[in-house]
User: Fold these one by one.
Assistant:
Number 1:
Amino acid sequence: MSQGYAIELYFDPALENQVLKSWNILARRQITSHLIQIQSRPHITLFSSNSPNLLEPSTLQTLLTSFASTNDPLPITFSSIGSFPTSNDNAFFLSPTPSISLLNLQSQLCDLLKKEGVDVASEYCLDSWVPYCSVAQNVPKQRMAEAFSVLRDFKLPVNGYAMDVGVVEFSPLREVFSLVLGSNVEQP
């Protein structure tokens, strides 16, 4: 049984591979392999909820098909590495340089969800949303400095494109569907 759903923004293959490279380096050094183990895909979370009042996946798919078809792929530049000070899972992330196109995409999605009666938590509203792409989770506390040092060697900035929007169910993590931005084509 699903505990919740998330709407995620996925990258072009070259950018996705750059993020996966960092995951694999951390795994080879036995710092963390959590994101690999849960079979996550590199992404920026646009919305997440474990509310029982969330729309059914079929309704979300209808809404997101229209949303994806009216939004083109957008450039993404990861320019810094960060960690949330209140995070309990000892995580690191890549932070994209905020762009008007990324912020507009987020704003449009929140407006669309609100029109459908979905309660959008403040953390996903435009004035407080912090876009990020996880690169390490569940890092042992005594290895945080080492993980940061490994990630600092990651050649930033890294440029690419956000190409797809998808819905995942959690936990366990399972992709429900994804859609190519700028078209009505669903990804398998």
Number 2:
Amino acid sequence: MAALRVFSRNIPYLRQQFSALLGNTSPSVKFICVVVVIGYILSFSEDVVDVLSVTPGYLLPPSFQLWSTFTFWFLEIHLWEVIIDIITVGLCGKLIEPLWGQMEMMKFFFLTNIGVAFLTTFYYLVIYSWTQDTSLLFDIHVHGLAGYLAAVSVAVKQIMPDHLLIKTPLGKLTNRSLPLLILIAAILLWAVGALEGTYPCMWGSGTLLSWIYLRFLQRHSSGTRGDMAENFSFDNFFPTVLQPIVRGILRPGHRCCVRIGLCSPSTRRVHLALSNRGVGVIIPGVEPQDMERRRQIALKALSERLSKTSEQTRQKNLSTKVNMEAVRKMQSSHVIPQFPTETETSQPAAPAETTLIDISADPSPPTTKTS
């Protein structure tokens, strides 16, 4: 009861924060948030959960319930998951959508969720082939936006890889290591029974699929595809000590994909481009879209800083003006006007003395006349 009272007291504050978060977002972001809330209300019915979620055994032939891949993502059964989903989608509308555009953002949303449904089903099918446990195919219900949250963490890592999140005694936590850390935490929570087994599967699927799309398939306005920057390679998700090992394991598979044309090779080049604005230099491992993305982020941060500085300067000038007016009023109240006395006004003025100088040839001394 005490927790419920505290929550009821904080409802106006939470409503204000959510309205500020979703205030300037696009209609697509607001639509996703509203549908997630509706899905949480519908999740109290077990029949609705069975129908709308992805069941691995029913997604495969002969049932082939492909329509569940379009409905499972808005079905959440925990309130904390709904809150996290709304906050994440709102931040996407603030950070990623202005850089990509609304259509690219929705394309990324649907491709990630549909891919997570099929890849998670494939995971359970492989586990079933080892264990022959039919409950893995018909008693497991895949639902929620865990895969999309993982995809968002990968996109944020691509945009701001070195952004500091928190300082810990073990080191600094940045966006670069966020997807892997959350995956490890989800596996540990599933091992102790605090989290469903579908959550780490969906998170791993969303991380892998979003990286493949952003690395090789995403089309940019310049006509290029993907992001072949060195700081966005797959081994960069792991700690520095493990990166050579991961790179050595993945190199043969990457070469095979390049030979059959599934992905483009990672080229290292230095390109000089002459234009009216100057000389553009592309250094190895940095793609043009990566440079443009960093430039836009820097311009956004600079504009926010300048707006804060101008607001502080305006307030400072306003306070200074108010203080000066107060000082002037205090000075004017203490000044006593001086008027001439009656004797001074009655006495005639003294005659002015004029000096006339004769400029004739005779060098006589100047004569002085009084008028």
Number 3:
Amino acid sequence: MKYLILSCILFSVLLFKSCNGQRTPSISYISQEQIKDIGGTVELDCSVQYAREYTVVWIKTGRSHSDYVFLSTGSSLVIKDSRFALRFDGASSTYTLQIKDIQETDAGVYQCEVVLSVNNKITAEVELSVRRPPIISDNSTQSLVASEGQSVVMECYASGYPTPTIIWRRENNALLPTGGSTYNGNVMKITSVRKEDRGTYYCVADNGVSRGDRRNINLEVEFSPVITAPRPRLGQALQYDMDLECHIEAYPPPAIIWVKDDIILSNNQHYSISHFATADEFTDSTLRVITIEKRQYGDYKCKAVNKLGQDEAKIHLFETVIPVCPPACGQAHYSSGKSLNGSSITASSLAILIALVYAFFKK
């Protein structure tokens, strides 16, 4: 019985020694993911067990793990960069890698490795992310030209960490074609663009770092002319001038003509035509009928045409007894007369007086 007990004790001791001698090194602790600002400081800890006889190294890899940079071996720093430092705490078997004045290029994966043999190693890793302000990429939309009714896609991409959010706005916070004053996402699509959708759009990238970034995207919409005549009926007395006006909205800018009795009018002693562009899409056109004669009364047409279509507006000019002011004010087509007190009077005033007398005796 005694021999049996002694045998069991001896077996247990041998088994314990055998187990203790085969303990495999391990990494008991590695720092969690670190997120730091540019210019900051970070410390990465790696604690090992049963690794006194083995080499422990720190290695930096890119996010794709394609590039390796050896930073330290054992308690010695390998990299020659004053921003890096290494500490070893023998009591806890912890290797601490410190990086000061963090740069954007320091972002990546840091591996702590216990090298057992050429082909055998134990690895733990921690990722260091560096906050970076957003920068809108060059492959984002810069400007667009589309015809009315077409589909339009505007894209906006930005780099930075954390990943920036993209918000779309319009100039003066006008409503977006998608509805609402803002739209979130890298891609904004307008299914059927209208001329009212033209203008400046803002792509804003923000991730809470710095002030973010913004790009102005100009959307130009091509559309056929739309003509309005603010005064479709105008009256004026004989021998006086009258201005006929029409407002044209179109893009690209259209060709504009005035027509009477199917004859295209031009600048001469009877007519004066002027165009004034108030914006890329808006043009005001004025036809001045000079010293109106009987044959100049009637219907006039203002016509505009571009590659997408055409439009026209009709203005009727009729005869009145009393001159209309303006533009008749101050015109002097008749010889001047004298008032009862000897002061001169204008031809327009004289004409108005004659017309009033004529109207009185006609009753």
